[in-house]
Amino acid sequence: MSPDLSRAEVVVDLHAIRHNLRLLAGRASQSGASTMAVVKADGYGHGALPVARAALEAGASWLGACSLAEAIALRDAGITARLFSWLDLPDVDFTPGVAADIDISVSSADELARVAAAANRAGKRARVHLKIDTGLSRNGCPPYAWPALVKAAKAESAVEVVALWSHLACADEPGHPSIDMQAGRFHTAYEIAREAGLEPLRHLANSAATLTRPDLHFDLVRPGIAMYGLNPVPQAEDLRPAMTFKSTVVLTKRIEAGESVSYGHTWTAPRDTTLALVPTGYADGVPRTLSGRMDVWLHGKRRPVAGRVCMDQLVVDCGDDEPPVGAEVILFGAGTRGEPTAREWADTIGTIDYEIVTGMYRPRVRRAYLGET
């Protein structure tokens, strides 16, 4: 048996996942759209398979994964719902994906040819979604090459064009002019596809657009971050953060006023105080840039971290309290008790909460789930 390397724990509340997905799918259904739950990057750090199962139970009918390998892993685990993958390396063989009935994104004539060749090897037609670049300027076919791609896809007997799709750049800023600009380009691309004889489904809306732009729901919405309870838009929404990151106290000690803590002695005790040692650091997902700027929830209250976050540990200033060894330490959670949140971490260090939660997929951080069925 391999030793347990874990020093911290992520607890994922699948009840929260289901609640959030029902809210998002409810918005979509009002527009007549179905819902694709995005579980890429191991479910944004929450665990792709448990999240996928919870999302399907709550009303999703599609699942989205970035890579073909991610999608195949879900299929191999028994997921029978429609699966979609959209970004792979140039040398990836699409044959297993076609054989596993996974929908594949196509952004170029070369990619179309590779998928068609895979379909011929698999002995079945490939289901493809043609991606148009409407202004994000990442993946997707540029508008000048779109008519040729559409024509080639229509003529290719080895593929079935299931859908047309794109991705929004600024949907998390409601009212940003790029949203309507991209929507207009998307409509133009759709009309070109229809003129070529295709009748594809359309999907454009991410989490933010699912919440704020019902006119862009079309046939299918693709919520990601909102399903995990993290709100991408300024308006209030009844979303419940699903992830709690916690560790434990392994040592307490008293130090006198004037003693300093951790590397660089950046923090000096202004009074006699009790320190609690937590065996979790930046190797486990706590950004070093939070040094001197973070609290934890310990023994019923928020307490500041003293000094620099280290690779394997951090130190909490507990004043005259002395939490027992083994006491639970909440590094971030839903915020309902006053504990820090992933959004608070992100705002403090100038990033987004996506980066915080996806960073929790680490060898020394075990996962546990609430609400598994």
Structure, described:
By secondary structure, this protein is α/β, with parallel strands linked by helices. It has 2 domains: 14-228, TIM Barrel (Alpha-Beta Barrel); 243-340, Lyase, Ornithine Decarboxylase, Chain A, domain 1 (Beta Barrel). Helices cover 29% and strands 23% of the residues. The protein is built from 11 helices and 19 strands. It has helices at residues 14-30, 40-44, 48-57, 68-76, 95-99, 109-122, 146-155, 177-195, 207-212, 342-349, 353-358; strands spanning 8-13, 34-38, 62-65, 82-85, 103-106, 126-131, 159-165, 201-203, 220-221, 243-248, 251-255, 260-261, 267-268, 273-278, 295-298, 301-304, 314-317, 328-332, 365-370. The strands form 4 sheets. It has an 8-stranded parallel sheet with strand order 8-7-6-5-4-3-2-9. The two termini are 27 Å apart. The mean pLDDT is 97. Belongs to the alanine racemase family. This is Alanine racemase. Its EC number is 5.1.1.1. It catalyses: L-alanine = D-alanine. The active site is at residues 40, 263.
Looking at the overall shape, the CATH architecture of the largest domain is Alpha-Beta Barrel
DSSP summary, beta strand count: 19
Please, what is the average pLDDT?
Answer: 97
- What structural class is derived from the secondary structure elements? alpha/beta
What is the count of distinct domains? Answer: 2
Q: Looking at this structure, what is the CATH superfamily of the largest domain? A: Alanine racemase
- Compute the separation of the termini in Å: 27 Å
